[in-house]
Amino acid sequence: MSNFLNENRSYPSDEELIKDAIYGNKEAFGELVRRYEKKVYSLAYSILLNKDDAMDISQEVFIKAYEGLRRYRGGSQFFTWLYRIVVNLCIDFTRREKAKGEMEYIDAIDPGDTHTSFFAHQQTPEEATAGREKLRALKKALNSLPEDQRIAITLREIEGLSYEEIAETMNCSIGTVMSRIHYARKKLKEKLKDFL
Amino acid sequence: MKKSHPEEEKLSLYIDGALSGDELDLIERHLTSCSDCQREVEALKGISSFIMKTLKDDPDYSLTRSLWPLIEERLPEKRGLSDLIMDWIRPVFITRIIGSFTVAALLLLLFSFPYLYGIWKEKRLAEHDADILIERVEVEGGPVMIFKTERKLTVIWLIEGDVHEES
């Protein structure tokens, strides 16, 4: 058993784990990964809307975080710091993929796909089809938004971050966040009117 | 009377609970009597719940296996004590070197200033002396010595004869 999970530190704080990880304790970092991997992956998925890309980016996020732990000053919450890395890596990834002309997530859901749990929540085939249609429409609508609006609305609606946390994550002012969320909602309202 | 509606952005802030004080009172009072804005608020809330519900129902949205085994094998090797010490020392060291050089340069400038100023002044005086023109001219009333520099002309009358002391 690693030394960071002893009796006195049965549930070490993030700060304690970070300190240990800085000194090369991979198990301490492993604990941080286990604490935040779901949040990091979900955010990456919400932005990229692709499972494989979200998995790759999530791994990159933690590797980058491990290498940059020393730069984490503790001023902000650890997850906000991680989220900033997620957002930056997703933006870089999106731009890279767009430049290669390979960004196409609208058809990420195969209409004939019936093996996923999404369609197995005791749903009738009709409900499952409706669910697929909703998801497809949502992904299409989110993909049509400018990148900064998509990220802002994702952080707000899906991750439930406050305006201050979004501003910190996106490295912009609260006013800019308000504006991005407002315009994103306006466009989504129009694009999703058939489902609302 | 035409009803004035609040800006759309205010309604967006309202559903996020980002308004307070007078702004919040104003919106709440307006909403009690404006069905258009009530519909707008409901539509905005509808978007929020639609996004959240639809995406969270997406099976790909949730991580199904831990990433740690994949990450662990990609992490750089455990760093030695010397690396960690160097990590701490390097920035401090670089800052100190730059700082020390700056302070040394300033001190050098400060202490050498009187010396450099002295050299400059001596040189300047030497140039100044070189400008002086001394000339003896015989004029009516006796000889005069003329000292001429860039800025002034000094004339000294030379009076020949005995010096009488007054009692």
Structural write-up:
The complex is a heterodimer of chains A (about 200) and B (about 170). By secondary structure, chain A is mostly helical. Helix content of chain A is about 65%, strand content about 0%. Chain A has helices at about 15-20, 25-50, 50-70, 80-100, 125-145, 145-160, 165-170, 175-190. Chain A is globular, with a radius of gyration of 19 Å. The model of chain A is unreliable at about 105-120 (pLDDT under 50). Chain B has about 170 residues and is mainly alpha-helical. Helices cover about 60% and strands about 10% of the residues of chain B. Chain B has a three-stranded antiparallel beta sheet with strand order 1-2-3, with no helix packed on it. In chain B, a hairpin with a 4-residue loop joins β2 (about 140-150) and β3 (about 155). The longest helix of chain B is centred in the middle third of the chain and has 50 residues, at about 80-130. Chain B is elongated, with a radius of gyration of 46 Å. The interface of A and B includes residues 29, 134 and 179 of A.
